[in-house]
Amino acid sequence: MIVAERKKIPELVEILQGHRKILVLGCGTCVTVCLAGGEREVSIISSALRIASRVGGHDFEIRELTIERQCDNVFIEEAADTIEEYDAVLSLGCGAGVQAIAERFAEKPVYAGLNTSFIGILEERGMWTEKCAACGSCVLHKYGGICPVTRCAKQMLNGPCGGSREDRCEVRPDRPCAWQLIYERLKKIGQIDRLKQIETPKDWSVALDGGCRVIVREDHRI
Amino acid sequence: MNEKPLEIYIFYCSNCLDTDALNKTLAEHGQDSAFKPIGLPCSGKLELVYMLKSFESGADGAILATCRKGECRFLEGNLRAEKRCEAVEALLEETGFGRGRMRLVQMARDELGLISDELDNLTATIRDG
């Protein structure tokens, strides 16, 4: 899922200055699960903004609303009438959600209330870790299901860098060395010989370096 | 002194604080504050947003009374409450309302004096601005 975290209240106040009627719009999908932009967080951020408005004399009038998914027009339409009533939208969706709302309401200021951080999973209660860099050319099958692009700080594709201490990453000692994990995993599944294969340079043209990516499925474009 | 009465919420776990005893303490505490006691089956029931809403609706300060560590009937309700209390303090600082208005008191039923002491401290902090 997409993992995000909220912006601090002073930054939000600065972003929203100049607007009075503000709709704080949550998203019921990824950002709900990562406790950043669901109904509960909409309520918390709205409440904090009302207090900040009172303390700072900003005169914000804030309404709360959460839709099922901000990156899908079907769900955006459910909120259309409400959005039209407000001067600005503070979206607590991911970056895709914010842009979907902005595209649908071309004349309405739409602001991001979250910093969208990465694609990851819940590792333990209250802790999310990055697992996928969306590089466009997945190599997980070669590394026992452990991604060196995302989880190795140096993105090494042909073995460890040699800087790890015990099983810890040299760059982030709080994280395990991805190559230690890859080695142990390949050994467990009987594929350790994969490490003898030389990995040629990765195709980065399909990653973000090539600009905004588009996927077209002609079989669905009738 | 004609200072505006302070509005102070007291969220409390009913396992560590008796309602009648609390009301008696609050009645004895003076008339310069309006107290709003809110009893809970466990302090772990207290969501962050409930605390924040009290400040949004005009509270000057709030106290959260929980059982002492290791004494929660539901094992970790008081630990969760403590973390949420810290989160509210951080959020209030972000809003510009300032720190020191959300107080945590970890206590047993026979330690009612801790509430009284914390009310004094909280009132003084708010009055001193």
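qc> Helices of chain A lie at 9-16, 30-33, 39-56, 73-78, 80-84, 95-104, 148-151, 178-188.
qc> done
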